[in-house]
Amino acid sequence: MKQSLKVAVHPSRAQANCSPEMRLAELDKALTSIASSLDLGVCPELYLSGYGAGEQHHALAEPVGGPFANALAARAQNHGPCIVYGYPQAAGRAVYNSAAAIGADGALLANNRKTILPNAYERTWFTPGDSVKFFSLGGWKIALIVCYEVEFSREIPDQGADLIVMPTALTENWSIVPHQVVTTRAFENGVYLAYANHAAKENDLAYLGASCILNPHGKDLARAGAAEELIEAELLASLQAARTLLPYLADCKRVAKLRGFYIGGNLFMDRLSRRAKTYVSIVLAHAVLGSRNRAKAGFDLSLSDRRARRWVATRHFQHAMPEQDREADQSVCDRKQNRELLLSPTRICLSRRHKHLIARKETDEI
Predict the structure, then answer these.
(1) Which residue from 216, 316, 299, 315 is spatially nearest to 265, judged by alpha carbons?
(2) How far apart are alpha carbons 132 and 113 in whole angstroms?
(3) β-strand 82-91 against 163-167: which pairing, if any?
(4) Is 169 exposed, middle or buried (0-12, 13-18, 19+ CB in 10 A)?
(5) Is the domain defined by 4-246 classed in CATH 3.60.110.10?
(6) In whole angstroms, what is the distance from residue 170 CA to residue 364 CA?
(7) In Å, what is the CA distance from 195 to each residue of 162, 222, 295, 358?
């Protein structure tokens, strides 16, 4: 693992109707202004189009490896750092709010489609993605997430991440996020965090700025103000010291075992067989995704979202519940209706005798 990583965050100045060519010229200027060698540069969410572009998101959307990505790849090769940026990604008929990481050799290292769309505006123009992506840089494992996903990032370090990189587009009425939420995530997870926000105004959107680079103790290594201001910091490979000082992740597992509750998926999933994990994940996916996205993904679930969630809660979290909670929860569950689930092409049912999930082919009789 490389002993240090030089990271810069480029809080770009938001502009209405900013062309891709203007963005590239702006980035060239920012990269040129950095005197020392740089390992990683981070740009904000939807850097290509601007967050408030509306229908222009679809007009400017491009596939992985599109023209803007190729132009950034050339700049990565010319200036030397890995570049992370947000863009509207076209994939078939869908458009995703995505972030990509392009290596110093111009190759794509990771592409993350934002999994959680927090407001009606984003849900109007984008389709949600399905998972967080990771990539390696100098032996550092880096998690690539987008904006709102940071509020659900407690398990990322459990997957070995040393640094969380997050393009965002945060307006001035959400100052609690960069000053408290993001710092808390870095602190409790014992990871570095690079947070890249827009600055200034775009149409009626007034961005907060406040881009920052945080250490594993949740303290600022660098922080920008409300204006466009390039920030940089050197990250040291000292994460173990922070995690030893506050063993938050280990303590979460310890608390889960002491209390007998499901926390963060760890205790619950560890108690399931490999096959069961696969099928419970499918059930949860169907419960969370909307019917429109299930159809796009090729899923056909003959069970309502409400019923799926109730089935998972009552049938599989029961063993981790205290007895009194288990009895109370069972009172709201119709045992007969929840005994079997139908998934196409696989049916998942609960065996009374063996108390575990059994997969059957669709051709089998109920």
Answers:
(1) 316
(2) 8
(3) unpaired
(4) buried
(5) yes
(6) 51
(7) 14, 10, 34, 44
Average pLDDT of adjacent 10-residue blocks, the chain of 366 residues: 92 85 92 86 96 94 97 94 97 96 97 95 96 94 95 81 96 94 91 95 92 95 94 90 79 72 46 53 53 45 47 45 44 41 37 38 38
**What's the CA gap between 250 and 244, in Å, rounded?**
10
Coil/strand/helix, residue 264: coil
Rounded to a whole number of angstroms, the distance between the first and last alpha carbons of the chain is 54
Ramachandran category for residue 176: left, alpha or beta (phi over 0 → left; psi -120 to 50 → alpha): alpha
Two tokens at 315? 């049938």
Enumerate the active-site residues. 45, 114, 147
Q: How many helices (H) and strands (E) does the chain have?
A: 13, 18
Q: For the chain, which residues make up each domain, given as ranges?
A: 4-246, 250-361
Cβ neighbours of residue 65 closer than 8 Å, sequence gap 6 or more:
108
User: Can you give the pLDDT at residue 131?
Assistant: 85
